[in-house]
Amino acid sequence: MAIDLIEKFTVGITDFNLYQNDLKTQSAVERQLAIIGEALNQLKKVKPDFEIENDKQIIGFRNRLVHAYDSIDNSIVWAIINRHLKNLKEEIQALQ
């Protein structure tokens, strides 16, 4: 659901400059990325053998979002949105 929300939040945001200048979208996207990371973190506690590609990086990025938010680089978030979310969504859908 969080990935679907990120996709909705970023409709019409076609380049990094638009994202960079839209503080509301940045905030909404970062919140959903934190939710994804926390959900995966909790799932790994219950099912330690559960594997998602890049799970450690996803959880680590969640921790940066929550605890070191002042060091978040918008270009990294933009790259996650455009290069990694689709694959994560497909991987999760394949598990259902």
Description of the structure:
- The protein has 96 residues and is mainly α.
- The chain is 75% helix and 0% strand.
- It is built from five helices and no strands.
- The protein is globular, with a radius of gyration of 13 Å.
Report the major sheet: none
Beta-strand fraction estimate: under 5%
Give the H and E element order: HHHHH
Contiguous uncertain segments of 5+ residues: none
Cα-based radius of gyration, to the nearest Å: 13 Å
Number of E-type strands = 0
Oligomer: single chain
Helix content: over 70%
Structure classification? mainly alpha
Quickly count the helices.
Answer: 5
Structure summarized in a few sentences:
75% of the residues lie in helices and 0% in strands.
What features would you highlight for this structure?
96 residues, mainly alpha, globular
Strand and helix layout:
Layout: H1 2-9, H2 16-20, H3 23-46, H4 55-67, H5 74-95
